[in-house]
Specification:
The protein is globular and about 30 Å long. It has a domain of about 50 residues. Helices cover about 10% and strands about 35% of the residues. With about 80 residues, it is mainly β. The chain has 1 helix and 5 strands; from the N terminus they run E-E-E-E-H-E. A 5-stranded antiparallel β-sheet has the order 4-3-2-1-5, covered by helices on one side. The structure holds zinc ion. Zinc ion (ZN) binds next to loops.
Length: about 80
């Protein structure tokens, strides 16, 4: 019962590019995933600033996946982590 509405964990891997709901103070809203572990490392594509987010925090802040580095999700546009 603790599952999010999407029903499955977000598939994320280093190299993915995501857009967060709230823009960075530098003006950029797009982040590159640089590290996956207990926390998820993100690097601002605009100012190169790095932050670490827990997975729940990451999933809450991500608005849309702009690019998946892997090909395992190629063509699967339904049931993804993007809400709209
Ligand atoms: Zn920035």
């Amino acid at each position: 019962m603790s599952e999010p509405a999407s029903g499955r964990p977000v598939s994320v891997q280093p190299g993915d590019v995501v857009r967060l709901r709230k823009p960075h103070p530098c003006g950029g809203a797009d982040w590159t995933v640089v590290r996956i572990g207990a926390d998820i490392g993100l690097k601002c594509t605009t100012c190169q600033h790095r932050v670490m987010l827990t997975r729940p925090e990451f999933e809450r802040r991500v608005k849309v996946f702009l690019r998946h580095a892997g090909s395992d999700q190629a063509g699967a546009s339904t049931g993804g982590p993007t809400a709209e």
